[in-house]
Amino acid sequence: MGLLGNPSSTQSAIIVPKPGFPNQYLIFTVTGFGSVGLNYSLVDMTLDGGLGDVVVAEKNIQMYLGVGENVCAVSHASGNKFWVLSHVQNSADVVAFEVSSAGVNLIPVISNTVEIIEARVGSTKGSPDGNYVAYASQVNSQGNIKLMEFDNSTGQITSTLAWSSMTVTGPYGAEFSSNSEILYISDGWGATSNSIAQYDISLYDLPTIIASEFVVAQGVSVGQIQLGPDEKIYLSTWNLFASLSVQDSFLHRINEPNILGVGCDFEPNAVYLEGRVARMGLPPFISSLFSVSFQSRQFCYLDSTYFSLDTAGVDSVIWNFGDPASGLQNTSTLFSPSHYFSDSGSFNVTLIAYSDTLTDTISQSIFIYPRQTLNLGPDTLLCEGEVLELNIQQDYSTYLWSDSSTADSLIIDSSAIVSVTLFGVCDTLQDTISVRFDKSVPIDLGPDTTFCEGSTIELDADVTV
Q1: Selection from 175, 172, 165 nearest residue 212 by Cα
Q2: Which residues share a beta bridge with 411?
Q3: Is the dihedral angle over the CA atoms 164, 169, 172, 173 positive or is it negative?
Q4: Beta bridge partners of 160
Q5: Distance (Å, rounded) from C-alpha 53 to C-alpha 48?
Q6: What is the phi/psi pair of residue 448, to 5°?
Q7: Interatomic CA distance for residues 110 and 86, integer angstroms
Q8: pLDDT, tens digit (0-9, with 9 covering 90-100), for 111-127
Q9: Phi first, then psi: what are they for 237, rounded to 5°?
Q10: Cα 29 from Cα 368, distance rounded (Å)
């Protein structure tokens, strides 16, 4: 109780794990209109019988007076620290505090961004790659947007671009796409259009950025926008100037925020909050997403399948191959394991990766293909007028017969040496068969005959072989 955030603050608080201490978390708070500045409190989850509690000696520790209602956290270039940043009110300054296993360094890195801004109401966000910091400032319904290059090894803002939007008249929320190439800005209270704008920042060139403005939606909401762990962007839906309604119990969503223009796929009222209302706020997260992916190769039954991942920043991993029939071999803690699947078919492989206090889980379905077989049978002798069908149909295969046909079967009605090549996902096989047809042999025993008992008759079939 008694932490110094405020329910009216744009970004009242952000939680950062304390590096090297898996049970400890730092809560950074800013209050409404910056009245008591930026503060932090330490939570130890081993206290209060495992329920967690604030450490009394590190509660509401003042870090900097005069910041606005904004705070964000970005991973340090070292991979085992964080930066916590806030824009100072009525100033061009941005302060960055280093958070390490030693705790919070209360001596900030201060950057003069040249562009003075009121910076009371509005959001600060870092890009997932840690190279940019954006700020959306709402000033008397005429807003300012700042995009700043950030050195996440030193904590310094190294350059600044600033502009105003005629579409987003009261900038309030700011967020980056997960690839850090697109910036989204939303309106806040007092805005006239309730819009969301998209900017291409991939070139970090002000005229290009301004010219790239795309209106994602208008008249939809006011408030905060936030990139989720699923790399989609969520937006609050509350209409400040209307009574609460059922619609206010939803979040809008941008499903493909890495795509410019209409392809970003804005979906209104995408997430139902079961009667609760986000109003203008959404909880901010550490901007630098810890996200892993893995690759796999060789997908044939009776062969081992190999897995690999980019291990940068990854401390440890757990693999589950979705193959319980393989027993103890179904899991692995190797960075680049192989697995011998117990059967062909579809398997859901899950990777859990750990980086200090961060965790990411990814699942991917892979298909193990059956092995191909080919056997045309023994050489065959048939009678003239008969036919032989050779059928070699198998899944995941194509065929080439000696007569250049490519069907999965062949009808043979004359003597020939027949060969076929089967091209499968796992195997290329070939077989040959000799098929011979003989003419029918005529047999004539003469007409039906009656003769006396005790007599004999000679039958001549008149067969020539």
Answers
A1: 165
A2: 389
A3: negative
A4: 148
A5: 6
A6: -60, 140
A7: 10
A8: 999 888 776 788 999 99
A9: -125, 5
A10: 51
Place of tokens 């795509």: 259
3-state secondary structure string across 11-67? CCEEEEECCCCCCEEEEEEECHHHCCCEEEEEEECCCHHHCCEECHHHCCEEEECCE
Looking up tokens 């078919």 gives 345
Any idea which residue has 């997908």 for tokens?
A: 299
Which token pair is 21?
Answer: 């201490």
Given the DSSP bridges, would you call strands 345-355 and 316-320 parallel, antiparallel or unpaired? antiparallel
Give the span between the Cα atoms of 134 and 209, in whole angstroms: 13
Tell me if 64 sits within 8 A of 37, measured CB to CB.
Answer: yes
Beta strands 388-391 and 409-412 are antiparallel
Confidence of residue 249 (pLDDT cuts 50, 70, 90): confident
- DSSP annotation of 432 reads E
Q: What is the DSSP string of 227-284?
A: E-TTS-EEE----TTS---GGGGEEEEES-TTS-GGGG-EEEEEEE-TT---TT----
Q: How far, in Å, CA of 411 to CA of 284, rounded?
A: 69
pTM for the model stands at: 0.67
Shortest CA distance to 299 belongs to which of 349, 363, 333, 350? 349
**Burial environment of residue 351 by CB neighbours within 10 A (0 to 12, 13 to 18, 19 or more):** buried
Highest average pLDDT, of 18-22, 43-47, 190-194, 442-446, comes from 43-47
Q: What is the mean pLDDT of the chain?
A: 89
Tokens encoding 444: 């004539």
Dihedral angle sign, alpha carbons of residues 320, 326, 332, 337: negative
